[in-house]
Amino acid sequence: MAASQFSASCSSRAGAFFQYDSRSKFIDFTCGSSKSKLFLVRTPNRRSFSIRSVSSEPTQKLKDPIADEEASTTLSSLTTDAASVASSIKYHAEFTPLFSPERFDLPKAFFATAQSVRDSLIINWNATYDYYEKLNVKQAYYLSMEFLQGRALLNAIGNLELTGAYAEALSKLGHKLEQIASQEPDAALGNGGLGRLASCFLDSLATLNYPAWGYGLRYRYGLFKQRITKDGQEEVAEDWLELGNPWEIVRNDVAYPVKFYGKIVTGSDGKRHWIGGEDIRAVAHDVPIPGYKTKTTINLRLWSTKAPSAEFDLNSFNAGEHTKAYEALGNAEKICYVLYPGDESIEGKVLRLKQQYTLCSASLQDIIARFERRSGASVKWEEFPEKVAVQMNDTHPTLCIPELMRILVDLKGLSWKEAWNITQRTVAYTNHTVLPEALEKWSLELMQKLLPRHVEIIELIDEELIRTIISEYGTADSELLEKKLKELRILENVDLPAAFADLLVKPKEVEPVVEVPSEEIQNVEEVVPSEEIQNVEDVESVDEEDKFEEEGPQEEEPVLPEPVPEPPKLVRMANLCVVGGHAVNGVAEIHSEIVKEEVFNSFFQLWPEKFQNKTNGVTPRRWIRFCNPDLSKIITNWIGTEEWVLKTEKLAELRKFADNEDLHTQWRAAKRSNKLKVVSFLKEKTGYSVSLDALFDIQVKRIHEYKRQLLNILGIVYRYKKMKELSVSERKEKFIPRVCIFGGKAFATYVQAKRIVKFITDVGATVNHDPEIGDLLKVIFVPDYNVSVAELLIPASELSQHISTAGMEASGTSNMKFAMNGCILIGTLDGANVEIREEVGEDNFFLFGARAHEIADLRKERAEGKFVPDPRFEEVKEFVRSGVFGPYNYDELIGSLEGNEGFGRADYFLVGKDFPSYIECQEEVDEAYRDQKKWTRMSILNTAGSYKFSSDRTIHEYAKDIWNIQPVELP
């Protein structure tokens, strides 16, 4: 067959020439003086092709696991030469244009570079997908409302081992790789640790070759972009999709109907049918997730929402009723506008519930479609849990349980018993919090309107649970049974179903008739004095009219007490998760114990086998190897291998070099290099100049009262006050220089958290401009904290604050990232701090504060008015009230730390209780930092002790203990 030829221009203006030979399936591509081969890849059983650059070396074909299947044609290795990479980038700049052709500036160069990387990812993604399809392996599906990915370019080329090739190629094209990477916006798909954990898990799943996918929502505006003004935090819409997303692949052929509202009818077949209502479509957008040094590339499937074109009311539009015409389309699209829309209004609550159901419904429909396709002609539903594991990341995806039941019973025709057995064996739940507001409860009334069929199913599940409770505890002890029903039921403040209506009915108490013995009474007059009645009959006829005459007219009607409002009827989502799943896990040892002993104690007593611990972890690829290359080289040189990137237990080998002076010198040099980058970054972002020789003290995380940024800033205020009371020489002798860095977002409607942000910025404005203090103390709030900022700050950190009220932080993951990068932690015994301290050594962790088991008694002490605050705490509060930090009124903020009871009062998070311990611990920090040899040793031992906190270890545990899946490595 004759070769087909065509020509086009390329960005070098030298002209591009393609020659395609259909027999060899190669395209010869010439652009100027650069020549390379492109390989046309055909995916088996799919009418699609991918083009990729290849070297002249022979290619290897992917082994087909099914002997009689058509041989799969793909590449076993990626091109690594810079010339081919440069050609691929030029190709995308020319033929996948998102920008005008005149210039090859940074934004255009980034998109062309990302698209060239995506080509390689698509090849591996297709190969991975096809291999899983053919083997029909059991697959895990991770459902999360958040995936906080960060930038993808450096991570992708790092995992593909193409960093050098891309750096060289871009250099030839006139750009630096670091400059190109900086053009990428962070994907606005998450907010905090929940989403970052999910992204770390996907990295580990791909790296370890586990068959798994992630499912989430494609938020157009994310949470919000944070600006810091004179008034504190300001929220504006995030613009991460403004120029498009080069990593995602829109799957227009993968879309599923999602229904809201409507009604339930019983059909002639006796089955319940959900009809009518509002219909939308969820459309898949795929983001390939590459593993490190493996061909395995898994998928993050994100759903966007839209309405069918038929829903656009053309007649109304032409009549000038434009808003009405677009209403259905707008209602559908807004579901994926914002992460966690404000839920103060009914509309906000409805939108949040719509988001959660969209995630669950679309994902389960997709999972089931894949199961049916892989099953072929004979679908055996009893095998569904043998092929599918669904993990709910916190309570947001709880509706997976009734949705899976609905699909199996209503659409697939299974009996209730069969469907319930399948559901319980398929679904598992990760709990991330002990905070009541995060253990979601939804209004039963709202849910009945929005998801009527799901409420029916939840009611039936609640009945199943009631039967289990009765079977376990019996009916003899009605008080115990009532207590267990109240604690365990999914429906709160809802009457028992009719079948159990008489279960807790207490017999009416009948007043006993007191008989007066005849010998104690001679006649009626002894009971009622004779002067008050005329005869026996009058005992029963004392008239109200007589009473009125005696007492006179009543001036006012008696005031009746106001009726007590009925408590709201609620659906307890966390309870539904525990009931509907086969496993429940906490995310740190102390947290899992609190889950068993407090949060779900009654469930633990009922089903102890369900409860597990899975301490969180973070990927060492992004959080050491890629974000801290200087430290990574040192670790590799001293350990003698780079295997620690995959086997973090090798980090422990650093312990034997902890006192080596040569290592100390290199270690400090790497830290200083990272600090230098942060000095430049802070100057650019905030305008503040900081000293490279100061201790970098960092607290970056979501702004919340329990995380106690308020304790940190009050400690800084106390430090500043004491500095002002000393002479210049005394200050320098007593205090080491510090740069105190904060970062994080306060939820838009969380007023107290926003006050804390305002307070931090006000303190910074005062301290940073005080000439008496100079470089001895700086306070900086970094705006719009995200993963990319974390990748810069964490390697430069020397002290990191993880100071939550004990027992309130489930785990934390930033504490692990800081420890991995040789940062020393100051913190309470909370979350993963407990395990980190055990691994790095007690002497290498600055510990303060009350313990988790003491918190309840301390709050009780406060409520009883017995707490006596430390004089230093009272001193710092008065200093704030003096107005030294500006005219803003901080009475509400400081008032939250005072009083003995009441909402927003009484120092619920024990800032005052832990304050003296905290400032004394900070004095220990100063003392330790003065001895740089000691500090460096502590830093090395923190990195060495962080080996346990890799997400690879966590994923192995999930795979073995919860999902029962095995690694599947592509040949």
TrEMBL record:
Locations of Acidic residues compositional bias?
535-559
Pfam families in the cross-refs: Phosphorylase
Q: Which GO terms describe its molecular function?
A: glycogen phosphorylase activity; pyridoxal phosphate binding
| GO biological-process terms attached to the record | glycogen catabolic process
Residue numbers bearing the N6-(pyridoxal phosphate)lysine modification? 817
**What does UniProt give as GO cellular component?**
chloroplast
- Into which EC class is this enzyme placed? transferase
Which reactions appear under catalytic activity for this entry?
Answer: [(1->4)-alpha-D-glucosyl](n) + phosphate = [(1->4)-alpha-D-glucosyl](n-1) + alpha-D-glucose 1-phosphate
Q: What EC number(s) are associated with this protein in UniProt?
A: 2.4.1.1
Q: What is its main location?
A: plastid
Q: Which cofactor does it need?
A: pyridoxal 5'-phosphate
- PROSITE patterns given in the database record: PHOSPHORYLASE (PS00102)
Keywords from the UniProt entry: Allosteric enzyme, Carbohydrate metabolism, Chloroplast, Glycosyltransferase, Plastid, Pyridoxal phosphate, Transferase, Transit peptide
Q: Where is this region: Disordered?
A: 535-565
Q: Where in the cell is it found?
A: Plastid, Chloroplast
According to its UniProt entry, the function of this protein is described as: Allosteric enzyme that catalyzes the rate-limiting step in glycogen catabolism, the phosphorolytic cleavage of glycogen to produce glucose-1-phosphate, and plays a central role in maintaining cellular and organismal glucose homeostasis.
The UniProt entry, under NCBIfam families, shows: P_ylase
Q: Which family does it belong to?
A: Belongs to the glycogen phosphorylase family.
Protein name per its UniProtKB record: Alpha-1,4 glucan phosphorylase
To which species is this protein native? Trema orientale (Charcoal tree)
